[in-house]
Amino acid sequence: MLEPSFQNDLVEAGCDEAGRGCLAGPVFAAAVILPRGFHNPLLNDSKQMSEKNRNALRQIIEAEAVAWAVASVSPERIDHVNILNASFEAMCEAVKALKVTPQMLLIDGNRFRTSLEIPYRCIVGGDGKYANIAAASVLAKTHRDEYMLRLAARYPQYGWERNKGYPTKEHRLAIAEYGITDEHRRSFNHSVDQLRLF
């Protein structure tokens, strides 16, 4: 069962990203401030949930959160600053877009870099421990998936409606046949040689 928050004295926002390991598309991040006592039995790390449950929870989180925001960083920017820094940028942008200013941030992962003057705590596996990080993981994942579905209509040969830009065998074979698009991250390894891993 997820803990509702890390502490109870300060207004706390959970932050998480989605799409860090993808070959194509932006990285998305979300920041969520949940009301005290928020609980939903479906809520978990978004990677452990079905697509149906993620989409259902997205509606609940967006309706019931004290505040929520989603931000993204483009493939071009990812290539410029690297994916780790782009993930940090996306989380910072999401926090800045919140309609309520948090007094503390809970960050999923073991590292964070920010110019925001808000105290933060990094939690490894936080999306499986704290409800506000899990909620952020759901929003980041569902908003990114929705974006990739729109891109899939423009680039049908890559199967993004199924793989969402991740380095699946289908995606790498399509890159080998059709090359890369403006939506691909040029700093990532698109080599078909990596198909040996499958």
Keyword list:
37% helix; alpha/beta; five-stranded mixed β-sheet; globular; Nucleotidyltransferase, domain 5; 6 helices; 198 residues; disordered C terminus; 5 strands
Averaged pLDDT, please?
93
Low-confidence stretches: 194-198
DSSP, total strands: 5
CATH homologous superfamily classification: Ribonuclease H-like superfamily/Ribonuclease H
Write structural notes for this entry.
This protein is of the alpha/beta class. It has a single domain, classed as Ribonuclease H-like superfamily/Ribonuclease H (Nucleotidyltransferase, domain 5). The chain has six helices and five strands, in the order ββαβααββααα. It has helices spanning 51-64, 75-81, 83-97, 131-154, 160-163, 169-178; strands at 12-18, 27-33, 67-73, 104-108, 120-123. The chain has a five-stranded mixed β-sheet. The N and C termini lie far apart (35 Å). The model is unreliable at 194-198 (pLDDT under 50).
